[in-house]
Design a protein that fits this description.
- By secondary structure, the protein is an alpha+beta fold.
- It folds into two domains: 3-118, Aminotransferase class 4, branched-chain amino acid transferase, N-terminal domain (D-amino Acid Aminotransferase, Chain A, domain 1, 2-Layer Sandwich), CATH 3.30.470.10; 127-288, D-amino Acid Aminotransferase, Chain A, domain 2 (Alpha-Beta Barrel).
- Helix content is 27%, strand content 26%.
- The strands form two sheets. Strands 7, 8, 9, 10, 11, 12, 13, 14 and 15 form a nine-stranded mixed β-sheet that branches. It has a six-stranded antiparallel β-sheet with strand order 2-1-6-5-3-4.
Length: 289
């Protein structure tokens, strides 16, 4: 079975064409569900515990009962990884609300559906991994008092609209602002900027996802003695940064070369290079699971 066709659904490893989610599933109808993207290195999922904890948090926020416990999800992920025959790769774990009526009310839904997909995912093009061009999107990220972005749900409409803006501008990624005009994150990744030797990233209260890779970068910076702060950032902070980069499970670490056509002074910059090297070492450690 080819990698792109491999699927685990509700306890069964199968071909994804044979494991279809029903059309009346509210995940299909309304984007009512949660997911996690996971990377595995040397056949081990990177920071599995953190990913499953975030999945459970998102599900609790939606009052969605997960159909399996962490041990079962972990065993399923291991089963899929073994079936791929590939040492390093990307997995998508999805839990949908389940089959219900055409109305919005989730009380009509039965048991949730869970599935795991395999395959490549590109948040930026392969060429852009050496330096991504970004724009500021006009589409805004919701503030936490409207819709908390820490809920990793299946509904990505604002991010899709922002990505369309990037596509039209010929950019690799769009940076989203919150309603107050502060930087939140990219459409599928967190943002770091470097100013005067300090590593900066927006807080979750400004609309940033509590990224697993984001947390790893902050830990690596602390271990290396790099000054870092989580604080609000405006567009000017990015436009006048010494260097900047994106982070995410699918993205890993990608340096930013231009912001709305304006080149940054360094890409990749020295701080990015140092942290990226440490990150690549981290994901190969057995304890990283």
């Amino acid at each position: 079975m080819s990698l792109s066709r491999l699927c685990w659904i509700n306890g069964k490893l199968t071909n994804n064409n044979d494991g279809a989610v029903p059309l009346l599933d509210h995940g299909v109808l309304y984007g009512d569900g949660v997911f996690e993207g996971l990377r595995y290195y040397d056949r081990r999922v990177f920071r599995l515990r953190e990913h499953l904890a975030r999945l459970a948090q998102s599900a609790r926020a939606l009052e969605l009962a997960l159909p399996y416990d962490d041990a079962t999800f972990g065993a399923a992920l291991d089963e899929v990884i073994a079936a791929t025959g590939i040492a390093d790769g990307y997995l998508r774990l999805v839990v949908t609300r389940g089959v219900g009526d055409l109305g919005l009310d989730p009380r009509s839904c039965g048991q949730a559906n869970a599935f795991i997909l395999t395959g490549a995912v590109r948040t930026v093009g392969e060429a852009a991994r050496r330096g991504a061009a970004v724009i500021m999107a006009t589409t805004r990220q919701s503030s936490p008092d409207q819709l908390d972005p820490r809920i990793k749900s299946l509904n990505y409409l604002p991010r899709i609209l922002a990505r369309l803006e990037a596509n039209r501008a010929g950019a690799d990624e769009a940076i989203m602002l919150n309603p107050a005009g502060f930087i939140a994150e990219g459409t599928a990744d967190n943002l770091f900027v470097v100013r005067s030797g300090v590593l900066l990233t927006p807080p979750v209260t400004d609309g940033a996802l509590e990224g697993v890779t984001r947390a790893a970068v902050l830990e690596l910076a602390q271990a290396a003695g790099i000054p870092s702060e989580i604080r609000s950032l405006g567009p000017l902070d990015l436009r006048t940064a010494d260097e900047a980069f994106l982070t995410g499970t699918a993205t890993e670490l990608v340096p930013i070369t231009t912001v709305e056509g304006r080149p940054l002074p360094a890409c990749p910059g020295p701080m990015f290079t140092q942290i990226d090297r440490a990150f690549q070492e981290l994901v190969r450690r057995p304890a990283s699971r």
